[in-house]
Predict the 3D structure of the following.
Amino acid sequence: MVKDIIVENVSKTYDSDRGPVEAVKNFSMEVEKGDFVAIVGPSGCGKTTLLWGLTGLHPFTSGKAIILDKIVDKPRQSVGIVFQQANLLPWRNLIQNIYFPLEIMGKNIKEYKSKIQDLIKSVGLDGFENHHPRELSGGMQQRASIIRALSFDPQILLMDEPFGALDAYTRDEMDTLILELWEKTQKTIVFVTHRIEEAVYLANKVYVMTARPGTNSAIFNIDLPRPRPEGITMEMRYFNIVAEIKRKIVEDVEKQKKEGKYKSQAYSTIT
Ligand SMILES: Nc1ncnc2c1ncn2[C@@H]1O[C@H](COP(=O)(O)OP(=O)(O)OP(=O)(O)O)[C@@H](O)[C@H]1O
Ligand SMILES: [Mg+2]
């Protein structure tokens, strides 16, 4: 199997006014081409730090990450990123927002147009190309930001709690949508979320991080059918996996507390 992403013992320590903050410690991960991997862990455990490290924008303090056979040392066209907030430019309409990365990269937009139009259609945004962000719902804005991330056709999509700011109903809709998009485009997706339910519904593999400093706790292979059958999230086999992962996180936190190593202030994972 081709490994699109190899993460070897990466650590990240921030310098802050209150001294060094060890955010991630010796985290390792491997992601196969076309796989859908989720990363979960207690609040503040270093999920965003890890993902930013993979973008090449914020280097790790030690360890190494390899994406598509290249050491991650700068942002590359092979990686698209989606954040919790859509961050669309308010003065640009939807299609201008989607073309924005291509403009920055100096690409010939004509070459990407038909693929982008196809993606716009598949997420139900056709007809809204000339709308400005303020005229779009939160879910529509986030759909636009996903298409923006895919505009230059990266093989890898890194997503950091992309639906965290949306209401529960829209979030579920977006989860279904991202699976459809994944099945259609065959991208390799790394999806960070604090919602275990979402991770189990979406991913083939769930990496659990411990509380800060985030390190490897466990890997769960999600043995649920593809495409996900309708109503799977109401089924016992789904609940059982969710419960197993939640139990593991609680166990980790209890262990860290016992050893006096638990550093997260907020612990909102088990909801
Ligand atoms: N620039 C920074 N300077 C100092 N400390 C930081 C910085 N960025 C993050 N941290 C700290 O590093 C730790 C990990 O932060 P990070 O945002 O990666 O966690 P997270 O798992 O994404 O959290 P959340 O669940 O809230 O999204 C936290 O304790 C945070 O306070
Ligand atoms: Mg985060």
Observations:
- The domain at 1-78+155-271 is CATH 3.40.50.300 (Rossmann fold).
- The helical segments are 47-55, 94-104, 110-122, 138-150, 168-185, 196-202, 236-258.
